[in-house]
Design goal:
With about 220 residues, this protein is an alpha/beta fold. The chain has 8 helices and 5 strands; from the N terminus they run βαβααβααβααβα. Strands 2-3-1-4-5 form a 5-stranded parallel sheet, with helices on both faces. Bound molecules: thymidine-5'-diphosphate. Thymidine-5'-diphosphate binds next to α4.
Length: about 220
């Protein structure tokens, strides 16, 4: 697809949302159509799935969604993603626009395989199918110790955020392993610095990426 597809990843509280918004503004200043979106919840159907995943389902035994099984959880995140790709991401890329998504497939690989300990290969196959094999050209993995990043959260912890320290450290480890396995696509950014310091690293890489992609596009 002709457009530019970028994802931001990392454990909760690393500042992805702030950096994604900065990147949106910066990329929009360069003239292209830019859409900032997120998972879960980047579509109307996805918003309903997000609510179930993070806040539970009325009518379940104790009124919470604690009992959502690991496989069910993986399928719900994948369902959200399938709709997100078809309805939001792919149409913008087809028009040659830029899509910046706050979380994508790596979140499922890190949380559902790393955190929940489902088999990585199963979660990967499920998600490649759900996303029709669409992968970002660049993924910024914002990395920070989850015990520190969780102190930055300004809301009550949701179902995923309250899954425990061991879960969070497995998730962080998985993000780092995924990035190491795909160095062409992934850039690990130290997220413990100030908002400006983190942004500077993303901006510098993005400038290089845009230059490369423009040259590649001209050659196509
Ligand atoms: P997020 O939107 O980043 O949370 P918030 O808006 O509260 O900052 O993500 C919601 C949670 O869902 C987060 O804990 C990560 C988790 N998640 C997965 O476990 N798997 C996935 O595939 C995705 C996209 C998110």
């Amino acid at each position: 697809m002709p457009g530019l597809f970028i994802s931001l990843e990392g454990v909760d509280g690393v500042g992805k949302t702030t950096q994604a918004e900065r990147l949106r503004r910066y990329a929009a200043g360069c003239g292209a159509e830019v859409v900032l979106t997120r998972e879960p919840g980047g579509t109307a159907l996805g918003a309903a799935i997000r609510d179930m995943l993070l806040h539970g389902v009325r009518g379940s035994n104790d009124g919470s969604a604690e009992q959502i099984g690991a496989r069910t959880e993986a399928l719900l995140f994948a369902a959200d993603r399938a709709q997100h790709v078809a309805e939001t991401i792919a149409p913008v890329l087809r028009r040659g626009g830029t899509v910046i998504t706050d979380r994508y497939i790596d979140s499922s690989l890190a949380y559902q395989a790393g955190g929940r300990e489902l088999l990585l290969d199963d979660v990967r196959k499920l998600n490649i199918w759900a996303a029709d094999a669409l992968m970002p050209v660049r993924t910024y993995v914002l990395d920070m110790d989850p015990t520190m990043s969780h102190q930055r959260l300004r809301h009550d912890e949701d179902r995923m955020e309250s899954a425990g320290d061991a879960f969070q450290s497995r998730t962080r480890r998985a993000f780092l392993d995924l990035a190491a396995a795909d160095p062409q696509r992934c850039r690990v950014i130290d997220a413990s610095g100030s908002v400006d310091e983190v942004w500077e690293q993303i901006r510098a890489d993005f400038d290089g990426l845009r230059a490369t992609e423009t040259t590649a596009g001209d050659a196509r």
